[in-house]
Amino acid sequence: MLIDSFPLLTVLLLFITASIMPLLKKSNLVKGICIISFIVSFVMYLATLNRVLKTGDYFYRVGHFNAPFGIEFHVGTVECIMGILFTFVAIMVIWNSIYNIHFDIREDKIPLYYLLVNILIASLLGIVFSNDMFNVFVFIEIGNLASCGIVVVKDKKENIKAGMKYLIMSCLGSGLVLMGIAFLYSITGHLNMTYIHNELVKNYIHYPRTILITLGLFTVGLGVKSAMFPLHTWLPDAHSNAPTTSSAILSSLVLKGYILFLIKVLYRVFGIEIIRNFPILNIILVLGCLGMILGSIFAIFQKNLKRVIAYSTVAQMGYIFFAIGLGTELGIIMSIFHIIGHAVTKAALFLCTGAIIQGTGHKNLDELKGVGKEMPYTLGLFFIASLSMIGIPLLPGFVSKWYLALGSIEANKTLLIAVILASSLLNAVYYFPVSINGFFGEENLRGKIYKSKSKSLKELLPIIILVIAMIYIGIDSQSIINLIKTGLV
What we know:
NADH dehydrogenase (ubiquinone) activity, NADH_UbQ_OxRdtase, mainly alpha, Na(+)/H(+) antiporter subunit D, two-stranded antiparallel sheet, 2 strands
């Protein structure tokens, strides 16, 4: 059936359209091709999810050889959800960039920028669907170069510095992942995830030290790439100096691709029965807790709005690692749910931040006091999105924290509830002042002209759709959680 090949065709579509973009001279044509390619991919993933829900997971052979000799895609419910999420957020971010990309990037570099975006998202989708470890590594390396490219494309000193720091750290992470793959191959003789797991179940007791080292290599390597505390040091510079659309893509999508791969390594390649014999989950749990607290503390002391949002990402990644570290089915479900909620929310926050910076010409929080009078709709959308990060009921951030608290009780680790509560309070400390100082205070509003710097509806519409999607994820969270659960059975 043609529909079975959609996951592969979407990756090929994005790579092929990327190769065409440098040949086109009109930037509007490049933008159109880019957004159309993501819309087509989005529709194909919807169709694939419908097929999976009706007939179940399946493996798609890439090439002429069956596994374990050939490459294959594993197409399941979770993978399809990630494909829909990645392409949906990409559509909204690219749609928003159509109106403001020229603020960040020179006209002659716009085709290069959209080429990098297509390659980056295609590589992330390859990571999500590949069932072959080395094939995943190839996609990781492609995505590594593309993600650094969308940071340095702004061509300013601070961008190049941040991009080089990102590249060095990311290459170190990739090297550790490759070493982990090599260790697995030496033990099992396979690169296919399914076959690796089957071999590990038979003989893991003979290689305890090797497996412990391998788990450490994957955790640290992918931890660097997904901003696990304290391996996050590249993120604040890269996310705060990159073009607005790059910041949105990096925070909402790129980090999630690597985290999903880590989940697959821990729970699909090794399996819960094996990793419970090692301390790796407890280490991830502790690092997740530290990220939740210290990421928020660092955010509180930032003066630059984009750096506040960047450090907020470190804290939010902490929630995902916290969920993974619980080592329960509920924990894994909530790690994936938080990936979904955070992707949509953080994309909206970064796009709002970019609009505010473009409208006012200011980045520092002290200079943005009273901006709510000049840009009421933009700051209003920012405020609604920030409520999810804080954990206000009905929004996805609250749902994640509620279920993580239940998961802590289920795992007999009730003290962790205090960490969740403390992190939520810290989130409020750095998010609420942005909106309060923007909308209220005589001194803050003095001299400000109502709606003087407002963005048009067409520019705000992608952000509005992201915020609506965020609210829907929160309200219909139970259906999404049930859907994720069916993909894990």
